Structures are given as structure tokens and as C-alpha cells.
Amino acid sequence: MGSRILKAAATAAILLLPVPSSQGATDTRADDDPGTDTSERAPGGMVLIPAGTAFIGIDEDELDQLVEMGSDVPHMDGLHALQWFGDETPRHEVAIAPFYLDIREVTNGMFQAFVETTGYEAEGDWRAYAGEGREAHPVVNVTWHDANAYAQWAGKRLPTEAEWEYAARGGSSFRWFPWGDRPDPALANWRHEGESFLDGLGRLVFGRKIRTTPAGVFPPNGFGLHDMVGNAAEWCADTYGVYPGFALEERLGEEQGPDGENETPRRVVRGGSWDAPNPVFVRITARNAFPETHASSRIGFRCARDAR
Questions:
Q1: Which of 63, 76, 78, 159 has the smallest count of CB within 10 Å of its CB?
Q2: pLDDT digits (tens, 9 = 90+) for 12-57
Q3: φ, ψ for residue 208, nearest 5 deg
Q4: If we measure between CA atoms, which residue out of 148, 140, 134 comes closest to residue 230?
Q5: pTM higher than 0.90, yes or no?
Q6: Would you tell me the crossing angle of helices 108-118 and 144-153 to the nearest 10 degrees?
Q7: What CA–CA distance (Å, rounded) separates 207 from 188?
């Protein structure tokens, strides 16, 4: 048993090695917090996200830009953009305390170390996508409970939705993506090539082969974070709800919110995934939510930790 624990710990340590950060846009809006020692060494595999103010969400008049961006999506028009993305409104300012965030998404190897060390029985069938050679790929098919259990074991927590969006922007003033405001399939993993009608039928009948990439393959954002959009979508800590000042209830009716679902509680999912068919679904501000017991080959997570 002792050797197995040592092996698991070594695996986790190797997969948590940090990577250097890169330069982002100059308008950071991040502030030094005099109450936090920002010289404190970040835990392994994490980076310090500085305190600052952040504008979260979008203005209603930006929905027209999303119609244009998603013009290749079937049925995309103003009404569908309202239904799919209306819950991103209104744009509002929040204060973010400093915190640490994982540089990469939690990998199959890291989650396996957790399971082997603790004997945890996951709700989601994560092993279905964790075969040989996929140790460095993000763990997926985990429920919110699975992600939260791992985070607690690691002495961490899941990031809040506001923390996630602030971190994804990387200290920049970019609106849509961690690298800028134009889609670039060279900078994130989503299904940018689309699919033919026959391929779509095949997917409905036989499913789709998972196409994640090893965590950290694509370039980092301004905070040094990899895969904040694409690859695996990520569970956040929050129970899903509308933003303060939300004013589209009458136009959206009972179908307001991600997927028009009414299950409770639902937890926020951010970032879009490898299976997103259009960049409009892998934007910094895009929201989704699923029941806590939901598991999907598209959803994984990364962890946060308070900065003391």
C-alpha cells in the first residue's frame, strides 16, 4: 500500500509541474493587494491570479456580434442568440480577491492518483476516457461531486464563475477569447473543422470519438493558464443563476438559462470543449450549467486555492 501511495504522489507531482507564463495584452486591470503577500511562492502547478476588478458578462447589444460569429451554426439568428447567450447579460463589475489557479486542467493521471490513494468511488465513469496513453489528457466524464471531492483532497477548491472568467481573460481587455477577439483554431482545441451531414448522422448513431489533447499543449494566456477555452469544459463552484440586474426574463420566458433545463441544483460549466462546433461556444463569457450528477466526455475541471 505504501509503495502505491508513493507512486501516486510521484505521478501527481510530475503532472503538476508548472510552466512559464507568457505576455498578454497590456490593459490588465489587476491591482496589487496590500493585504496579500504576492511574493508568496505559488503551490506547484498553480499560478497566482492577482486581485483586481473585472467586468463579467456581455451587454445585450453584443448579441448581434455573436450571431455573426456563429453564422455557420444551424438556425443561428437573433432569437436563438438570445436563448443561448442571453444569460451572459448584463455586463457587470465585480471585485476579485487574489487566488491561485491550476495552470492546467486536472489530468487523468492526477485523478487516478487521487482515486488510488483514497479509494474514492467516482460517480462518473472517468475511466472510459482514461485508457493507456491518455494520462496527460484532462480527466472528463466526472460529476461536479467528483471534481469537488478531488479539489478537497488536494487542499484546494473549485473556482467561482467570476474567478474563472477573470482568469480566462488573462489580465487583458479581450472580449471573446484569451488571445484576442478573433477565433483562432491554432490556439485552442475545439471542433473547428465542422462536420458533414453524414458525419453528423454517424455521431448520432455511434457517438463521437473523444478528441481531447494533452493538457497544456496550446499556448497559455496572459496569466500563464492553458486551455481556458476548449479541450475540456470546466466545472465551477457556483450554483447556476442569472446575473445581478438581469432583465430578459419576459423575452426568454421559462426557457431562460443554459439548455432551457429546470433541474436543481445545477452547477456552472465554463470554457467550452473539444466538441464545440463553432467558436461562439468557446468564448470567455459563454455560460453553461448542468445538474451536479451530470457527467460528460466534454466536461472536466481545474482547481483554485485562496491566496493567504
A1: 78
A2: 333 333 333 333 333 334 444 434 444 568 899 999 999 999 999 9
A3: -120, 135
A4: 140
A5: no
A6: 70
A7: 22
